Structure formats: C-alpha cells, structure tokens
Amino acid sequence: MSVQVPRKDKVIAVGYENINLKDYDGPPYSYSVKVNGKLKRMMGFDEEHIKVQLHPKKATMIRKIKDV
Question: Pseudo-torsion of CA 50, 53, 61, 56, nearest 10°?
Fold first, then answer.
C-alpha cells in the first residue's frame, strides 16, 4: 500500500509578465551603442528595442548605422 503525497507545482517567474508587444517595424537594423564608455554593435528594430535588450544597463548613446 503506497501513500501519494501531493506535490506543490513550481511557478517560475521568467520576466515575461510585463512585456508589451508592438507591431513588427521592418527588418532589424544595426546600431552603434555606447554602454559603460565602450562602443558595442547591436541589432534591433528601433532604439527602444535596444534599450530593452540592455535593460539593467543604460546606453549613453544609440546611433543607427546606415545600411550600404
């Protein structure tokens, strides 16, 4: 005779609770981003998308690179 012990379901918060999705705004573009005094090259749809990717950090400069 076995006794079944009910287990608690684990709820994992992954940070997707407060995402506001926008309409797709064309292909991803290249951006030159200055973070902590260093230049980084990043891909994103717009400046806000770049900021979301860097979330805990703050970008001091975000400049769109012209496509050739």
Answer: 150
Give CA–CA dist 6/4, Å, rounded: 6
What is the number of other CB atoms lying within 10 angstroms of the CB of residue 43?
A: 12
pTM for the whole structure: 0.60
Ordered alpha helix ranges (H), the chain: 47-53
Non-local CB neighbours of 59 within 8 Å, separated by 6+ positions: 33, 34, 35, 50, 51
Alpha-carbon distance of 54 to 65, in angstroms, equals 18
Tokens read off for 42: 């990043």
- 10-residue averages of pLDDT along the chain (68 residues): 66 64 75 95 92 92 88
